[in-house]
Amino acid sequence: MILMQLNGISKSFGAEEILSNIKMEVKDNDRIAIVGRNGAGKSTLLKIMAGEFSHDGGELLKPKDLTMGYLSQHMTLESGKTIWAEMLDVFEHLLGLEKQIRSMEQQMEQAATLSMENMKEYYSSMMSCSKHFSVMAAIHMKQTLKLF
Ligand SMILES: Nc1ncnc2c1ncn2[C@@H]1O[C@H](COP(=O)(O)OP(=O)(O)OP(=O)(O)O)[C@@H](O)[C@H]1O
Ligand SMILES: [Mg+2]
Hints:
41% helix, 148 residues, Rossmann fold, binds adenosine-5'-triphosphate, alpha+beta, 5 helices, 2 domains
């Protein structure tokens, strides 16, 4: 599947043309290296692809629902956090879900005293967690139900 198509992309900063007639296709599972001398326009091209810079000419085609991650060459970290804490921030939503699952596990330890209605309630709330965790939740649920 084609994820992105660049047709004749051009970009200038002032009078200086940095990119001219760039044609490129990015397909599913592609691994692409962009090679060039310093100042050739590699980062400019990536920024255009990531939607951070506009382009002057040509067209960039991509599906509307395409999401992209872009790690900048020059990063400015302004927080007082450690590097570890800064990196964990990326996974904040997953860590939140993990906490939720752990707390549900604790509640399920008391499952022997729960009614079937409560179990169903636990099950649906676990299943509402992200798909990353729903399989895990189902396994936990199955194991717990075996106790009955
Ligand atoms: N925001 C900007 N405004 C004006 N000129 C810019 C801007 N960003 C980049 N340039 C200029 O565009 C040219 C290409 O820069 P770019 O950062 O894309 O090159 P690069 O290939 O990534 O270089 P490097 O190998 O050093 O990372 C350079 O001459 C740079 O000075
Ligand atoms: Mg660069």
